[in-house]
Amino acid sequence: MPKITFIEHDGTTHTVEAELGATVMEVALKNDVGGIVAECGGSCTCATCLVHVGEGWTDKVGTRSEEEEDQLDFAFDVRPNSRLSCQITVTDTLDGLVVHTPSYQGR
């Protein structure tokens, strides 16, 4: 199983095993990672599962869809490496992925 490291805004680190085919958001919720609210449950309609993808991983997680871009327009602390974790599907390629959670999830 691939491993993902979540780093919360306060530096708390969680390295967890991720089920193939799950989303990064689902992995975070299943493992009680702080900083992921996921109000919409993963339907890409709220932007409360925003993460900042670690350096060197942006190409591997893929590009943002138009729908994701629209949601990020209203999110807090958006950066070039920001993604909605509900839109990143876990694959073997993501073994070792590092994502950072922001200090606030909201609009």
Give the SSE layout.
Layout: E1 3-7, E2 13-17, H1 24-30, E3 50-53, H2 58-61, H3 66-72, E4 82-84, E5 97-100
Parallel strand pairs: 1-5
Antiparallel strand pairs: 1-2, 3-4, 3-5
List keywords for this structure.
Ubiquitin-like (UB roll), 3 helices, alpha+beta, 107 residues
In short:
The protein is of the alpha+beta class and 107 residues long. It has helices spanning 24-30, 58-61, 66-72, and strands at residues 3-7, 13-17, 50-53, 82-84, 97-100. It is globular and about 35 Å long.
Task: Explain what the structure shows.
With 107 residues, the chain is α+β, with helices and mostly antiparallel strands. The chain has helices spanning 24-30, 58-61, 66-72, and strands spanning 3-7, 13-17, 50-53, 82-84, 97-100. A 5-stranded mixed β-sheet has the order 2-1-5-3-4, with helices on one face. Strand 1 and strand 2 (13-17) form a beta hairpin. It is globular and about 35 Å long.
> How many helices?
3
SSE arrangement, N to C? EEHEHHEE
- The CATH topology is given as Ubiquitin-like (UB roll)
Total beta strands:
5
CATH structural architecture: Roll
